[in-house]
Amino acid sequence: MRHRQRLFVRSLFNYRSFLFILSLSIGLFSGCTRTPDFRSSLYEIDTERISFTKAKDSKVSVSIVNAQQDMRKRELAHGAQGRMGSMGFQRYFGSMNEITQAVVIQLTHELQKRGVDVKKDAANRIQLQVDKTRFTMGAWMNRVDMEVRVKAGKDYVRTFSVSNGTPGTMWRASDGAVALITIDILNDPKIIEYLNN
After folding, report:
1. pLDDT recorded at residue 159
2. Order of strands across the sheet that contains 61-66
3. What is the pLDDT of residues 45-86, one digit of tens each?
């Protein structure tokens, strides 16, 4: 009789252990398989990092245009063109248009801080288009490489390339890359000249 009781207790314990391990595994697996959509936040840039301090004319206005038409959502995974970052079960999704819009928002914010009136119908136009991204997840560092084509007015076109790494989240690495692009744009002498004319 005692032998049967021991077997029953042992099998009950094994069954509960199995359920506990199963539920823990499901919880961990579902937590690791999140598929967040692209999101961005404004990155506070130190003013001394940007050469364009203030518009010479207080009536300067400019339109910042998102020229990237690719609105297809896709997995943005490590290593392939047009893909952003994937490691383990974590996957990230977004479009090139959304990434470009993050640059538009950051650049607009920095220009407005410097007295530039940013509006849709302005005669002066700066067009932005993110052409390439590579988001790489690592165990201790997330990295974002980004290329943005900028057109100021009718004649000036330049491609800016940056790389930003952070031990923070993938989206924080992206925000940092967007901030670096913005810094490069507002340190470009031709763009500063365009904004002041």
Report:
1. 98
2. 117-118, 61-66, 124-137, 142-152, 156-166
3. 888 899 888 767 677 899 999 999 998 887 764 433 334 444
* C-alpha–C-alpha distance, residues 111 and 105, integer Å: 10
What is the phi/psi pair of residue 87, to 5°?
-145, 130
Please count the CA atoms within 13 angstroms of the CA of 128 that sit on its side-chain side.
30
68 by Cβ neighbours in 10 Å (0-12 / 13-18 / 19+) ranks as: buried
Interatomic CA distance for residues 133 and 165, integer angstroms: 13
Q: Which residue has the higher pLDDT, 154 or 136?
A: 154
Q: What token pair was written down for 80?
A: 């392939």
Q: Tokens 């989240």 label which residue?
A: 169
Say whether domain 47-196 belongs to CATH 1.20.58. Answer: no
